[in-house]
Specification:
The protein is globular. The relative contact order is 0.17. By secondary structure, it is mainly alpha-helical. The protein is 47% helix and 0% strand. The protein has one domain (8-63). The chain is built from three helices and no strands. The chain starts with 10 loop residues before the first helix and ends in a 9-residue tail after the last helix. The model has no long low-confidence stretch (mean pLDDT 87). The longest helix has 17 residues, at 47-63.
């Protein structure tokens, strides 16, 4: 299964705590900081602020090694 799209809100499907049981959060991570960043990103209307929130969420995800990019 793959997820693709240009909007970073797709991260919520795989990293929000609410999706840890019965969702696509297969790592079962429950991280309040990731939840906060992704939730704020969903409601942020300012594009620059939204970019910062999602960049911080992606950095946190990488710091926790929840996602390892694979490139061929």
């Amino acid at each position: 299964m793959t997820f693709s799209g240009s909007d970073p809100s797709l991260l919520g499907a795989t990293y929000l705590s609410s999706n840890a049981e019965g969702g696509f959060n297969w790592s079962k991570v429950r991280d309040p900081e990731i939840d906060r960043l992704l939730t704020e990103g969903l409601t942020q209307l300012d594009p620059a602020a939204r970019t910062e929130l999602y960049a911080a969420a992606q950095a946190r995800i990488m710091d926790l090694s929840l996602m390892v990019p694979i490139r061929d």
